[in-house]
Write a structure and sequence with these properties.
alpha+beta, OB fold (Dihydrolipoamide Acetyltransferase, E2P), 7-stranded mixed sheet, 25% strand, TNase-like domain-containing protein, SNase_OB-fold_sf
């Protein structure tokens, strides 16, 4: 009788150990899957969606650390308005120069887009958009491109040749205080 009870205890211990090991393995697999879903390295022909968004293969990519004017956003210079949102998209297309694009990122935004730094050949597209004045350094999320913004502003490149609403304010409908006039 004593032997049977010891066997039952040993069997119960083995079942608990097995259950614990299976639970731990499941947690590890779920964690790895979540990390893999966030990180990506995509390369291919890029479709320009707007001044800070690309489609590369099946991946929608938001350029990390920058914010470009929305497609239908306008800027002004004196009494003249111009479609700076469309011009920003054209600027991104020009920076790509029909080259394959490689984007590397490890986070996603609330829309599921990969937040990434993208290159067309040796050109850092994120930095180029800010340096050319077609996007602002998105300081709320990163300060990586502040030097390029300072340079673009000093040289009156892109949007900096006139007045504009910061894209984050424009999206909120706060179109009263122009960044520059």
């Amino acid at each position: 009788m004593l032997f049977a009870n010891n066997a039952t205890i040993a069997s119960g211990y083995q079942n608990n150990t097995l259950k614990t090991a299976l639970l731990a393995a499941t947690i590890v697999l779920i964690t790895l899957r979540c990390l893999d879903a966030a990180s990506a390295d995509v390369t291919g022909e890029a479709l320009v969606i707007d001044g800070d968004t690309l489609q590369v293969a099946t991946e929608r990519v938001r350029l990390h650390g920058i914010d470009a004017p929305e497609t239908n956003q306008v800027c002004s210079s004196g009494a003249v308005t111009w479609p700076c949102g469309r011009m920003a998209a054209d600027g991104l297309l020009a920076a790509i120069k029909s080259q394959p694009v490689r984007c590397v990122g490890n986070k996603r935004d609330r829309y599921g887009r990969l937040l990434a730094v993208c290159h067309a050949g040796p050109v850092d597209l994120n930095a180029a958009m800010v340096r050319d004045g077609w996007a602002l350094a998105y300081r709320r999320y990163a300060k990586d491109y502040v030097p390029q913004e300072i340079e673009a502003r000093a040289e009156s490149r892109g949007m900096w040749r006139g007045s504009f609403d910061a894209p984050w304010n424009w999206r909120k409908g706060e179109r009263t205080a122009a960044v520059r006039d």
